[in-house]
Amino acid sequence: MTAPDRVSHVEIENRERLERTPAHEVALDCLAAGIDAAHPRRIVGDALSLSGTELWVTDVGGETTAYDLSGFERVVVAGGGNAAGHLAGALSDLLGDRIAGGAVVTDDPTDAGPIEVLPGDHPYPSERGVESTRRVLEVAERAGPEDLVIAPITGGGSALLVAPAGALTVADLQELTEKLLESGAAIDEINAVRKRCSAVKGGGLAAAAAPARVLGVVMSDVVGDDPGTIASGPVSPDEISDDEALGVLDRYGIEAPAVREHLIEKRGDPGGAGADVERTDMCLIASSRTALDAARSAAGKRGYEPLVLSSRVRGEASEAGRFHAAIAEESRESGDPVPTPAVFLSAGETTVTVAGEAGIGGPNGEFALAAAIDLAGREGVVVGSVDTDGIDGATDAAGAIVDGETVTDRERAREALERNDVQTLLAEAGAVIRTGPTGTNVNDLRVVVVEPN
């Protein structure tokens, strides 16, 4: 739960309608605390500080690096992602007139002082995203050898930072993205292909800024926090080969003729535009662990025994939902792995393999509905799951919160899962969580509250 003396940056819009029981209140406390803890303005306040002319940056591991801003002619900002606007705004508040200007692309705009906050689209790239990305690249290209380019990089940047490579078009990338997202491919596989089809990903932004000094200020939304996967690595060297990218298309049977032709034509070329690692630093300032730690603290304050299952949950969303339901049942009936009252927490990024014509839903909705089917008729368990950016898949919801009363017709619920059309059923049950855009993105967050028998 957020401490009372700290301003909350994120609210669950329909919370009052969702607080059916004390267990629901606990679950919502955990979810809200986790999302809020990862908001850029809170993160920047904790991870970055200014002492005289020195900018001190502390990563999630506690390592601190100092940058003497007096040693640079200019400080400019160039980046993108779901949370890039809010991150740029926090940087502007911290550094003030030390920032000479800049530009970021986001789908959640906010004021960022001298930094242009430009529009893009997520989860599918768009023409306006291309135009905005050109402006970001222009800012980077104008940086000189004595300048510092601060690059706010957050989840969602793979769709928002769009610069098609070679003869590829935005339409080609839109088709590719849709097929990849519906294939069940993991995010690292998806971004492996997207990097090889882009002039900004795979180190392209850092290459544009060379020979300036580049500082990537990164918020992770991927399992394992690989900087080359977060937003497809705009300031990280591309270590993916064209053959590896082609392998992803083959593995999931993805028909994308223009992309395949592009990858075959450039086979053997060095990976990506590359980043000058000698002049580029990466600082990870937030990840799913940030949200998990805050959620765990919220559960403890409510008197529950919290247990983090994993920050790396992946695979099919519905299977993950059933697994979490099984853990809840075991805890309630046997006291393992921890006795009740207990709260189980997890993070990561599950996927959805779309079968046929896709309905309305997302991974967090499918996770929650699958858990609700197995928990139907059972008491004492509440399950909540959200995407921390406030947008589950291509829906207008963050996720869902369910219990043993959510599903009254198991056959209908199973059919909804099979059609990948869970949103209608969850909305009818009053289970949909709405936050609107949250200003952050550190992957999915899940909570399971288990009451005593």
UniProtKB/TrEMBL annotation:
Provide the MOFRL domain boundaries: 343-444
* Keyword Transferase assigned: yes
InterPro entries documented for this protein: GK-like_C_sf, GK_N_sf, MOFRL, MOFRL_assoc_dom, MOFRL_protein
Query: Cross-referenced Pfam families, in alphabetical order?
Result: DUF4147, MOFRL
| Superkingdom of the organism of origin | Archaea
Which PANTHER family does the record cross-reference, listed alphabetically?
Answer: GLYCERATE KINASE
Keywords recorded for this protein, A-Z: Kinase, Transferase
- All copies of the MOFRL-associated domain together span 27-263
Q: Name one GO molecular function term.
A: kinase activity
- Entry protein name: Glycerate kinase
